[in-house]
Amino acid sequence: MIDTLIEGFISEYYSFVAFLPRLITALVAVGIVYLIGKVLASGLLQVLKRSSMPEAYHSYFSKLVKGIAIFIGIILFLNVIGYGTLSASLVAGGGLTAVMLGFAFKDIGENFLAGFFLAFSRPFNTDDIIETDGITGKVKSIQLRHTHIRTPEGCDVFVPSAQLFTQPLFNYTLDGLRRGSFTVGIDYADDTNRALDIMLDCVQNTPGVLQSPIANSSIKGFTPNYVELQAFFWINARDQEMGLARVKTSAMNNCRLGLIEAGFTFSSNVSTALTMSPVDVQLHE
């Protein structure tokens, strides 16, 4: 009994000694692959830091490269030590598992995939003012699964990346310009050309309104009771102190005061005059 155990131990010892060079080779190969992956991840991180890609994506791509390197290292390790069938099963099983997880977490996977493509298209960056599906606000942070938007009302909204990728997206600060407009109604008897000149002068002298592109004013339309005039102007969208609401309010108030001083009649003061002709009525018994 003891002799059998000793012989078995000696046999396994010689088998291990014969297998040891292959094991060392496999470990060295795994180490080399891991180091290559680490160097590539570090180099990619440096490239991304010099690019305009949001910082939120930097760590994701770095970890992705490291994860791929580790997976390749495991497959290589199994093949070198003679477990090629197991490595093939692992690759096939990994693909099947990915499919099963894809169906189980469809929405999460869709958001991550959309965030991955948004990282390359870069339709917006942090501090940009965007609008999507009726949600308007400033971008506070960008993650792979969602984007943090703070609305003017102070509400923090976390918009899924899939919505940003599939729905129309409006970026008001991509070129640094944002246009504002408002309308004013005056009486048909008033001089519209003079009113347009007064509005244009008031808008151009409003703090926060850019001189280029230039502001303009025009007749928007005719209503049954008044002539509708419209003014357009541009502001610096990246100027947080002179936002659109503040500049628009100042421009509207300046136009109101200018038109009042010039004696114009506003739409709220316009009424329709009716002329009543006398009617003879005869009563018969």
UniProtKB/TrEMBL annotation:
<dbReference type="InterPro" id="IPR045275">
    <property type="entry name" value="MscS_archaea/bacteria_type"/>
</dbReference>
<dbReference type="InterPro" id="IPR006685">
    <property type="entry name" value="MscS_channel_2nd"/>
</dbReference>
<dbReference type="InterPro" id="IPR010920">
    <property type="entry name" value="LSM_dom_sf"/>
</dbReference>
<dbReference type="InterPro" id="IPR023408">
    <property type="entry name" value="MscS_beta-dom_sf"/>
</dbReference>
<keyword id="KW-0472">Membrane</keyword>
<dbReference type="InterPro" id="IPR011014">
    <property type="entry name" value="MscS_channel_TM-2"/>
</dbReference>
<dbReference type="InterPro" id="IPR011066">
    <property type="entry name" value="MscS_channel_C_sf"/>
</dbReference>
<keyword id="KW-1003">Cell membrane</keyword>
<feature type="transmembrane region" description="Helical">
    <location>
        <begin position="60"/>
        <end position="81"/>
    </location>
</feature>
<feature type="domain" description="Mechanosensitive ion channel MscS">
    <location>
        <begin position="110"/>
        <end position="173"/>
    </location>
</feature>
<keyword id="KW-0812">Transmembrane</keyword>
<dbReference type="Pfam" id="PF00924">
    <property type="entry name" value="MS_channel_2nd"/>
</dbReference>
<comment type="similarity">
    <text>Belongs to the MscS (TC 1.A.23) family.</text>
</comment>
<protein>
    <submittedName>
        <fullName>Mechanosensitive ion channel family protein</fullName>
    </submittedName>
</protein>
<feature type="transmembrane region" description="Helical">
    <location>
        <begin position="23"/>
        <end position="48"/>
    </location>
</feature>
<keyword id="KW-1133">Transmembrane helix</keyword>
